[in-house]
Structure formats: structure tokens, C-alpha cells
Amino acid sequence: MIRVLLAEDQALVLGALSALLSLEDDLTVVGGAPDGETAWAQAQALKPDVLVTDIEMPRLSGLDLAARVTRDLPGTRVVIVTTFARGGYLRRALDVGARGYLLKDAPASELAGAIRRVHAGGRAIDPALAAEAWGEGDPLTERERQVLRAAESGASTAAMAAELKLSEGTVRNYLSAAIGKLGAENRVEAARTARHKGWL
């Protein structure tokens, strides 16, 4: 049996995934978590074969969860199931060690097949999304991403500098670089563009 842990913050989706996967003869759902931190605790306790997680969740994102699992629980493989059909998210998911990336509107049989493939050591990635992911690279550095995330909230340069423990001049430099790379008019437009492409 392939032991599966589910992490999904929408209760209806979590219940539906659990019910659908439980119909498969070779899969057993050993846990379900409504947020990333709970999923991390369950993953450490249960050591599932495969973790199936959404990207956006309370307390700890699916990408951060995938990074922890890949680093600390090498026997557990990660499959991302999300609504984000964006190449930037796929690239980031693969960078943190996810082995699968599927969209929530995929048929249930596809998810079961992906879990089996990933458990066997393979990858399971939506082919159209894979083509898009390698069509346009993420031009931002990690620091530029951090500054744009802070800018999304509408914080002042001084507040962003305090939050990120940087000088105001350094924050302005990162913002200017990000705005230039994204061809944006200002920090808000740059953050919106980066978020849309899945780079934040």
C-alpha cells in the first residue's frame, strides 16, 4: 500500500480527495491537514510515502512544506495539486523538491496515477504547464522577491527596510531592479506582474 498524507485548507476539497483516493486498491490516506504546520507535524509523525499538498495554505505554504519534507523526510515524496496553472509556480515547486505538479481540475484517476508514478521514483507534471515553465525564466533574485512581497502590502520603504533588516537605500535598489526587470511602471505593478506569473 502507498501511504498518502493530504494537505488542503478547503475542507470540502480535502474530504473529496480523501474519498476518491480511498477508492484505489493500492492507496491509503493516513492523514489530512487543513494547514501547512499541521501537515508538517503529521508528516514527521506518520512518515507517509507521498505528501499531496496545495500551494496556498495558512501557517505554512505548500512550497515551504515541500522544502521541509524534501530536506528532512527523504522517504516522503511530494505532489503539488493546485489551481495555479502558472509556470513560475511549477519551477519553484520543482526547485524545492516536489516530484509532481497537477491542477485541481485534472481527473481523479490522473492524481492516483501521479501518486503511483512519483512513489516509484518518477515525475508527474502537467505537460502544457511544463512547456510554459521553461518558456520564460524568473528574472528575479530571492531578495527582489522578498522586497516585492513586502511592497504588495503597501508598506513604506522604511517599513519594508525594518521588516527585511535592510537599509532603505538597499530596499530602493532592489525595488528599482525588480521594476526594471519586469518592465513595470512602479512597485505595485511589478508585484502584481510577478504574482501573476507565479514568481512571488
From TrEMBL:
Superkingdom classification of source: Bacteria
Provide the Response regulatory domain boundaries: 3-119
A molecular function (GO) term: DNA binding
What CDD domains does the database record attribute to this sequence?
LuxR_C_like (cd06170)
4-aspartylphosphate: which positions carry it?
54
Start and end residues of each HTH luxR-type domain? 133-198
Q: Which UniProt keywords apply?
A: DNA-binding, Phosphoprotein
What's this protein's name?
Answer: DNA-binding response regulator
Recorded hits in InterPro entries, A to Z, give: CheY-like_superfamily, Sig_transdc_resp-reg_C-effctor, Sig_transdc_resp-reg_receiver, Tscrpt_reg_LuxR_C, WalR-like
- Pfam families for this protein: GerE (PF00196), Response_reg (PF00072)
